[in-house]
Hints:
Blueprint: H1 2-15, H2 34-40, E1 45-48, E2 59-62, E3 68-74, E4 80-89, H3 95-106, E5 111-117, E6 122-130, E7 132-138, E8 142-149, E9 154-163, E10 166-175, H4 176-201
Amino acid sequence: MKKIFLFTIILSLNIYAVNVSTFDIKGIKLGDNPNLIRSKIPNLEIVNASEYNMGHYIMWMRNNNINDSLVISLTHIEKVSEIRRIKKFRTKVNFNKIKKQLFRKYGKPRVKGYAAFNNNEGFAYAFCWGSCKKINISNKYWNGYSVENTWKEKSLIVKYSYFLNVNEISFLLRDEKAIYKDDKWLNKKSLKEEKEKIERESNIDL
């Protein structure tokens, strides 16, 4: 009986187990390199994060479409660690139709969330595939649940929201482990550069 119970638990978990590494946003996947990205989406702008104090991201690529923005973050070895897309709709949309398109492409999400904005004047749906969890939201404006990714794992989070007369959908495909490793590399690099700077400055002309 105990074996059957454990098997049922494992089976139920595997139903939601998906390989987020195979997921893409606009054809871009985690681990892609700049050349592969350009072959799929030409004319992306390349920005060195160090020039903009962007923290752990070494480089990122973006388009310049304010209504359908795409930002691709890369590690120091030029591999995609995060893809963000935000699409703003000009009019109201059929959310059920959009939801069917999402589920057709990515399958059934592992975690779902819903939150109401300012006494039901708006709303936000959240879906997560991969490693994620549901979180409670309760503040001055929002009440309900959303989702967030878990530490050192891969996930895709899609949020559709309507509030303040703005309809938008956002995608976040993220590799927490790659970002964590890049953080460690950047911290080590910064410490080394600081030490070298101190050594250079620790000289006087006698």
